[in-house]
Amino acid sequence: MGFFDSDIIQQEAKQLFDDYQHLTQLGGKYGKFDREGKIAFIERMETLLDRYKVFMKRFELSDDFMAKMTVEQMNTQMSQFGMTPMQMFDQMNLTLERMKSEIDK
Fold first, then answer.
1. What is the mean pLDDT of residues 90-104?
2. Can you give the residue ranges of every domain in the chain?
3. What average pLDDT score do residues 16-34 get?
4. What's the sign of the alpha-carbon dihedral 42, 30, 15, 77?
5. Which is a Pfam family this sequence falls into (predicted)?
6. pLDDT band at residue 3, thresholds of 50, 70 and 90?
7. Collapsing DSSP states into helix, strand and coil, what is residue 2?
8. What are 53-87's pLDDT values in tens digits?
9. Distance of alpha carbon 3 from the chain centroid
10. What is the pLDDT of residue 41?
11. CA-based Rg of the chain, rounded to a whole angstrom?
12. Among residues of the chain, what percentage have pLDDT more than 70?
């Protein structure tokens, strides 16, 4: 069975995508959130990033050809922005840390 044939992989991919879309839409209202809402949003984003990192690690560790191609495509896409996927995650974490530091401002 191929990597993408796995029901677990398909379910997690769908859930990650749905959660990301929901948080992205919610993020548009971030400036209107009260302190607790901002904290909750940041925590949800951190959890999503952690889940995404684990999901991507599955791709990296897989021997499946399509999984390896997916990793290669992501590396290529990120290199067009002058960064690696890990640097992207680091940048996202820095953004969340900055958002945390500005909650009370």
1. 93
2. 3-101
3. 94
4. negative
5. DUF1825
6. confident
7. coil
8. 999 999 899 999 999 999 999 999 999 999 998 89
9. 19
10. 96
11. 16
12. 98
Q: How confident is the model at residue 104 (pLDDT cuts 50, 70, 90)?
A: confident
Residue type, 52: Y
Whole-angstrom distance, CA of residue 66 vs CA of residue 90: 26
Whole-number Cα distances in Å, 64 to 5, 36, 37, 105: 11, 43, 41, 48
Q: Which of 7, 13, 20 is nearest to 70 (CA)?
A: 13
Residues 29/72, Cβ–Cβ less than 8 Å: no
Buried b / exposed e over 27-61, threshold 16 CB at 10 Å, is: eeeeeebeeeebeebbeebeebbeebeeebeebee
Angular region, 15: left φ>0, alpha ψ -120 to 50, beta rest? alpha
Per the listing, tokens 């495509």 go with 73
Tokens of 23: 């948080």
> Six-digit token pair at 3?
């990597």
